[in-house]
Amino acid sequence: MASDKELSDFLKSAEKRAFKRVVYAVRDEEAALDIVQDAMIRLAEKYVDRPAAELPLLFQRILSNATMDWFRRQKVRNAYVRNFSDFDSSDGDGDFDILETLESLDAVAGLESAQDTVSRAQILLAIEQEVAALPARQREAFLLRYWEELDVAETASAMGCSEGSVKTHCSRAVHALAKALQAKGIAL
Predict the structure, then answer these.
(1) Angle between helices 29-46 and 4-26 (to 10 degrees)
(2) Each residue of 62-73: pLDDT tens digit?
């Protein structure tokens, strides 16, 4: 069981990295602060009985889930709710026509062809499926290193293995993904 000091020290050491990663993902500093704070609260409330060595991996998972939850909420909110003030021009001259704004938004959205949009979505789905098909340890090492951006030592600590094992798992995962994606015609 992690002591209060160990939990506090871990959260202090992780907060800046977590904030940087989340702000990069969501591109909104206020939302990133909320996400990191919620993840820290969840860790402190629900996992205080875990050993201090498990905190980094637990926190990374909680933070990733909190970030994905934020994206889901934004997608739903943006699909159903749109304020007229979101369309207003930044100069605030009061000369605002919603139809002109919607026409300009449609023109911007039309820059990418439907074929490119569908192709990109299919490639991302193929990558996601291949990552999911990796063996558990390879997938875990790959996601912690390249998605969570942990270094080799942090990944080894979170996975409870040696740094050499992390390097081996990551190498095998990258080669397996490259081979599987190339077999599907996706050039890397």
Answers:
(1) 150
(2) 998 898 899 888
